[in-house]
Design a protein that fits this description.
The strands form two sheets. A three-stranded antiparallel sheet has the order 1-2-4. Strands 3-5 form a two-stranded antiparallel sheet. It has nine helices and five strands. By secondary structure, the protein is mainly α.
Length: 162
């Protein structure tokens, strides 16, 4: 068993910031790693240590600074990161306090279609950059959520890309 001196315990507590019924490691967050624990420092099922984008990190910091959710920034997140953020808010119990509305994080339909057309043009022009392929996969998932294409069609497009 590890014993902390009083100063070490204070340093350990300073690394974490309260987030509803959880705590978030702020040192790791600044390095784009999300580590969320119960206040007892026990791990949370479904919210494992995860590398995150700068956009999600900024969104979490904005929430700490203002007490509000930046939905506009949330629209820029990948569908996976939107799911992470949604789990974080709901499981922490902050969804009611913040009046969290996941639908506000969805992008405007015309923006998603426009982004798809731009990425499709890039690929048709011969750009085989892995980032373009990743981006088009994310856009296809957005189109599925918006009911613009079926999951089957999206999967077929992805197969054709590879």
């Amino acid at each position: 068993m590890v014993k902390f001196t009083e100063s070490k315990l204070k340093l350990e507590l300073m690394k974490y910031k309260e987030f509803g019924k959880f705590i978030i490691n702020m040192q790791l967050l600044q390095s784009n790693v999300l580590l969320v624990k119960y206040k007892s420092y026990a791990p949370i099922p479904g919210l494992k240590r995860t590398n995150i984008s700068n956009d999600l990190k900024l969104m979490i910091n904005y929430l700490f600074d203002t007490g509000e959710i930046d939905y506009q920034s949330g629209q820029k997140l990948t569908s996976n990161e939107k799911d992470i953020f949604n789990k974080l808010i709901v499981k922490s119990g902050l969804n009611l306090q913040l009046k969290f509305d996941m639908l506000k994080m969805e992008e405007d339909e015309s923006d998603v279609i426009n982004e798809f057309n731009i990425l499709k043009g890039e690929i048709l022009a011969g750009n085989d950059n892995p980032k373009i392929k990743k981006d088009i996969k994310d856009v296809l998932q957005k189109l599925v959520r918006l009911n613009k294409i079926s999951q089957l069609n999206a999967e077929q497009i992805i197969i054709d890309l590879e």
